[in-house]
Write a structure and sequence with these properties.
By secondary structure, this protein is an alpha+beta fold. The chain is built from 17 helices and 27 strands.
């Protein structure tokens, strides 16, 4: 039976790969599912097959492009129909990926998108657009109106009224509005404006996006389990509409009711909501944002809150960013979800050690959201049109069919003034840049394939916007405690400051890659102000918060004591971002060589074991010098030691650059489960020594730069 099923699956798979573009993407998503038969073994191999199968299925949907000539035919017919209804039509361009109907009931969980059932292209349903416009009108436009009674009457006219709980509460405060229909005046009726489906002006491209939550146990246990840096991310793929396509929006007057004034007001609501809130899901991470319509008289920012904050982010060092498939260039960009995840991490470090895990989770969920509730902090991130195109990691040269096909690219390295060094008893030359970027471009001898990542070169820029709303949080006493918009924004800005001063984005960000700089930052936040802001927020709930009984037993925290070595100046006109990363890498090599086979090297986050690597000597090793490997271990909250399969470095290297091309290097250490200040003074002394020597290495490297 399984053999027959596998043969059929193979036939369907081959057919889809050969003639994929002619298939209806909705059928590909809902009906032609290539499932691997379940063997019941739940083995690693079976899970990988299922994962590969789902990935292949989503790629089949993405590659189905539709018939462009037929699409234009039905589009023209649709426009004629709308024109006959009268009203207003305008176009707005999608400038960020859009996720629509992710939770729609289907065979693939959280991987759905809104597709036209008949024709198969992605579109925006009118019901969703009406809900989006109404939400913006009530939460953003209404509070700014001098006469709330008249404003409520306008909202009721445009969207209609009902007898539900919401409207009953409204009519307790304001007199009921009477709406003139074709036949009579009535208080409960449909809206005066009809919101139609928004069709794209061309067949929209889909793409596979990804979320990679790192702390599943922490979120699922609601803070009972700690979020550790030794956890593996769990990638979740889903479909989005690729930005760059314009959608046509149409509003028409409901028969016998709508006026031009109603249409103008409805357009203001909808156009403003599309530009400031976004459409679809994951809008708090910047998905679904639109540009204003060209030539429009609507001021989309007229009613936005005073707590809206905008700034420009600049990429200072190359970033190894990726989407669902790291081997493709499409995902090599800073996405809103990536930035939001980093900000959330840095915010958490401000409060760990001060709150219990469950209280931390409740406060975090109120600000940043959870699986069941939306967060009070929303952001959007728009890339500059001048940003460079992603390139393959450029520092190695690949020559197929050679015994060692991957070697340093001397042409690239010479161009950036990067030279090699020899350290200790290592016979071959090493490059600091390549050492620091380990894993970004490697050759697998076992599989005989090159595994290379795309990177985004500096400089690159993005426009970041924070929009916050008031929220409430309930702790152990079950009472609700309010946080106003300014308090929420202060927490978001604190996280942004920490990220832009010490952190980075993308792979190898703790080594200095993907360092960001904030421009147009009118709120000059110091480290002291950031800590004061966090303490002030906690003091608001001081009477009921449960303090962490053992704060130093938590995974990582931004608090005293911490060590920062900063402003290590590099004043050279010939130095660029690749060169500065090579300089940091050379310091890293020399330091790691000094502590070869010593436990202090584990403070680098790697290796996962000391000595070895095998139980018996290999190659150049002898029985007299060989020592049995000692695995890196972690003592969890239970007090039991566990061997780590993964561990991130407890320090952060961040590179900054000012307008005079003067680079500086910041180094931050956060205590974590490997180094416990209450357990060992020796640990702290060793770490101080480590930091001081690393600083001296950087100063030495900078002073010798050409």
């Amino acid at each position: 039976m399984n053999e027959m099923l596998n043969q059929r699956l193979e036939f369907v798979s081959t057919e889809l790969e050969t003639h994929n573009s002619k298939y209806h993407p909705g059928l590909l998503l809902d009906k032609l599912i290539l499932c691997i038969p379940d063997t019941g073994k739940d083995s690693k191999e079976d899970k990988q097959k299922q994962k590969d199968c789902i990935s292949k299925q989503l790629n089949n949907v993405v590659n189905s492009k539709g018939d462009s000539s037929y699409f234009q035919l039905i589009k023209t017919r649709h426009q004629k129909t709308l024109k006959g209804l009268g009203g207003q039509t305008w176009a707005q361009e999608l400038i960020a990926p859009m996720a629509l109907h992710l939770a729609r009931a289907a065979l693939l969980e959280n991987a759905n998108v809104c597709l036209h059932r008949t024709y198969g292209f992605a579109y925006l349903p009118g019901s969703g657009l009406k809900g989006l416009a109404r939400a913006w009108a009530i939460t953003t436009w209404l509070p700014k109106q001098a006469d709330p009674i008249t404003a409520w009457q306008a909202i009721a006219r445009v969207f209609g009224t009902g007898n539900n709980h919401e409207w009953q509460e409204v009519w307790k405060q304001y007199p009921k509005v009477q709406i003139q229909t074709e036949k009579k005046l009535q208080t409960d009726c449909i809206g005066a404006v009809t919101f139609h489906d928004a069709w794209p002006n061309k067949w929209p491209e889909l793409m596979v996006d990804v979320l990679a939550p790192h702390h599943g146990d922490y979120y699922s246990s609601k803070g009972e389990k700690i979020p550790g840096d030794w956890e593996d991310p769990i990638p979740v793929n889903f479909l989005t509409i690729k930005p760059g396509v314009a959608f046509d929006f149409h509003l028409s007057p409901t028969q016998g009711m709508g006026t031009q004034e109603d249409l103008n007001l409805a357009r203001q609501f909808l156009e403003s909501a599309l530009c400031t809130r976004g459409a679809g899901g994951k809008t708090s991470a910047g998905y679904g944002m639109f540009d204003p319509a060209k030539g429009s008289s609507v001021n989309v920012h007229q009613f936005e809150d005073a707590t809206t904050f905008r700034c420009e982010l600049e990429l200072i060092t190359p970033a190894f960013l990726a989407g669902a498939d790291p081997s493709r260039p499409e995902g090599c960009d800073l996405r809103g979800s990536t930035l939001r995840g980093q900000l959330r991490w840095w915010w958490r470090t401000l409060h760990t050690g001060h709150l219990s895990g469950t209280d931390l989770y409740k406060l975090e969920s109120a600000l940043w959201g959870s699986a069941s509730t939306g967060g009070a902090i929303g952001l959007s991130l728009i890339a500059s049109d001048d940003n460079p195109k992603p390139i393959l990691a450029p520092f190695k040269e690949y020559i197929p069919n050679e015994r060692h096909p991957l070697n340093p690219d001397k042409k690239f390295l010479n161009k950036h003034g990067i030279s090699s060094i020899k350290v200790g008893d290592i016979t071959h030359e090493q490059y600091g840049l390549i050492y620091l970027a380990y894993g970004m471009d490697e050759f697998s001898n076992k599989e005989r394939v090159r595994k290379v990542r795309y990177c985004l070169e500096a400089p690159a820029n993005w426009q970041l916007t924070f929009q916050t709303r008031s929220t409430s949080v309930s702790f152990s006493d079950k009472s609700e405690y309010k946080l106003d918009q300014q308090e929420v924004l202060d927490q978001a800005l604190s996280a942004l400051k920490l990220l832009s001063q010490f952190g980075g984005v993308g792979a190898r960000s703790r080594k200095g890659f993907g360092s960001l700089k904030v421009h147009d930052d009118s709120r000059k936040l110091s480290v002291l102000k950031i800590k004061d802001s966090a303490a002030k927020l906690r003091s608001k709930f001081d009477n009921i918060l449960v303090r962490n009984p053992n704060p130093d037993n938590y995974y990582v925290r931004y608090d005293e004591p911490f060590i920062v070595k900063t402003n290590i100046k590099c004043i050279h006109k010939n130095v660029d971002s690749w060169k500065i990363m090579d300089m940091v890498g050379k310091c890293y090599i020399r330091f790691a060589s000094k502590y070869k086979h010593k436990k202090i090297k584990t403070y680098l986050g790697l290796p996962r074991q000391i000595h070895g690597p095998k139980d018996k000597p290999i190659g150049h090793q002898t029985s007299s010098t060989h020592e049995t490997p000692i695995p890196l271990k972690s003592q969890g909250l239970s007090g039991k030691e566990n061997k780590l399969s993964r561990h991130s470095a407890p320090y952060f290297i961040h590179v900054d650059c000012d307008e005079k091309n003067i680079y500086s290097v910041n180094i931050l250490f956060l205590y974590d489960h490997l180094i416990r200040p209450e357990n060992s003074k020796e640990n702290k002394d060793e770490w101080n020594k480590f930091m001081e020597e690393l600083k001296l290495e950087i100063i030495k490297e900078v002073s010798s730069a050409p």
